[in-house]
Amino acid sequence: MWNLIGLKPKAPTETHFVLDGGSLIHRLPWAKGATVDTICMTYVNYVNNHYTDATVVFDGYPSVPTTKDVTHFRRTKGILSPKVNFNNDTPIKTKKDEFLSNSENKQHFINTLGEKLKDGHVQVIHAEDDADLKIVLTAIEKSKQHTTTESNVESIHKAGEQIFVALYGGLLDVETLDMLRYRIFASKVCVGNIYVQVHTLPPTSDAAKLHCMRVYHQTQVWIGKGDKLDPKDWGWHVEDNKLLPIRALLPPAPEKLLRIIRCNCKLNCDTKRCSCRKHGIDCSPACGECRGMNCSNTSNITEADELDDM
After folding, report:
1. What is the pTM of this model?
2. How far apart are CA 180 and CA 201, in angstroms?
3. Residue ranges covered by each domain of the chain
4. Exposure on the CB side of residue 78, measured as CA atoms within 13 A
5. Which of 50, 87, 175, 286 has its CA 20 to 30 A from that of 106?
6. Distance between CA 105 and CA 82 in Å, rounded?
């Protein structure tokens, strides 16, 4: 996402950016043999040049056991670097990923970088361990201190579609999401020797719009403005006294194509072995055993499952 959309406002605004410190650290390459001070200043200059007003939130790596230890170890891919005693003038001669695989090295570097960012007039927050919650809470708190504007469905859909197009490598301001979906599908058909997996394609514009509406609604709930919005106006519907996401208002593909995709499951269609579930569509009367009625891959249950995943 760093390179997809220009984030720095062209004119002074009240926009405030809350940055994930861990993502920031991995964003920039380290010159081989550069000193710690030189590396830190690279980050300071980058933040100041790309963001008019920012807060960087860093993970914490305490010396006591935490529930994130397994995740941290998995990210090292089994490569562990020895502890390095360093100061601002110490040249880093090992690769960045290897150096940071040691939690003590990483915490020491985060502390050093944090001080350099503060000297560069960048706000810094250190979480006790995982920073995800702290990032969200910081963003909510900053939103209360800055003027926020309400958006309408059209502007939310337009911005969300641009993000999806960028994420899937499309041409911004040229391709719509549906155009990109068709182009990627055609490309896979031309060069592939197996059938196209539907889940590898971008979502339809219709599905993306509903997803973006739900994201906006959830964001408004986080900043304390959700009581003004009716979920049923923002991509949800009520069924059996439960709020369930509206996956799409239009079919995912033409009716002729949907009739081609069918399963012949002997059991309950509750795993990815079911070709219908695998392609993200409900079982239909064309299916061999369940006929779209006697299985778990019907609209009601599938939508509930999707809600749980969210």
Report:
1. 0.57
2. 9
3. 17-145, 149-250, 260-310
4. 0
5. 50
6. 8
